[in-house]
Amino acid sequence: MTNSRLRAALLVAVLGLGALVAQEPHNRSLIEPPADAVRAGGPLAEAIARARAAVVRVVVEVSGRNTFVLERPSSGVIVSEDGLVLTHWSLVREADGAADKRLFVEFEGGAKTRLPATIEARDERTGLALLRVAVPADAPWTTIALAASVAPGDPVAVLGFADGEDQVAFGGVASTAAAGIEVMVDGSTLAFARDDIVLTDAAIQARSHGAALIDRTGALVGICSADGVAAEIAEPTLEQLKRPSFGFVIPVRVARRAFGAKFPSNADLATEPSPQARAVAKVADAVVAVHAGKAAPDAIGATDPFGKRRRDGVGSGVVIDARGLVLTNRHLVHGETTIRVTFRDGASHPAVLLADHVETNTALLKLALPPGKSVPAARCASSESVAVGDELLVVGNPEGVAVVVGAGVLSARRGA
Length: 416
What we know:
The protein is built from six helices and 23 strands. It is of the alpha+beta class. The termini are far apart. Residues 10-21 have low confidence and may be disordered.
């Protein structure tokens, strides 16, 4: 056979093989999931799916030779069937009385899903705003349920629609605040009492301004504010890293108080405390504030509601015996002769250092209690019973007035 005939025969064979392969079933990807793959889900997956349709983007459009929208994180939440949307005044103020600006709410799907809106009401004390939308009959309008309350430790999610392209969610647990806060908004100071905000370890970022905080049923706990979140800097200095930075949540009950009869009168949805919240409740009375030396009782201040910043002589401890034994950190009390321990109910007792341990930075205190007096104590468990991946809660009380809560999982074991 000549070389040309051999090449022709090989070409026919290859083409025939290719035709045969094309007719056979084939895997488009080595990592393509099987048809019966199970969706991962999670403790908040159904809640987020239920709430998504009620979370919108708030858009201010500027008309002129080149019409454009103000690009910034700007979420809002549908709170009534007759067209009310809860958001922040700072996200809509430019449209107030301006002939060259129009206000819209936008659903997933981009500009094609925008509905015109007007400003229904503004509350200067909280910085909140209510928008009114004339809802067409065929509009994708879904009202979110309103949560009656949330307990420290309850699972929650931050759900926002900042850029008009994708909704973004972050999960965590709810917490009370260690202190009231103050934030600057458009040159004015907004002040919130400790009981008028909700905190969460779910990320409230700059893009979360106006996002919804939802509970595990998908009901609205409150609206997220990033007014206390510091701007990101590419190469920050040490002082810039020390800047106060925190997000917080204005709960539904505060919004209702702010707007009165204008706020929807929907019945708030009450839910049973979650297993996480019940766990926090069991230990909360035994978690105490430990103040040593000249530390002020109100040392947290108005720029650190979670009590995350380290302060000399200010921290938390836990009572491990009803006769007044308290476990805390060694660095809080080392070298100090004056130590006070404060409970959530306001009771305060002096304490002395019984023992400390350098390697683990732990210290054991003994309260000076009146004869026959006992105090709430937490049950001690064995760390050997906790496996990698198990959910854990951290509970602190740096001010002695309310517990702050965070959640996570055990990621590793180290040492003996």
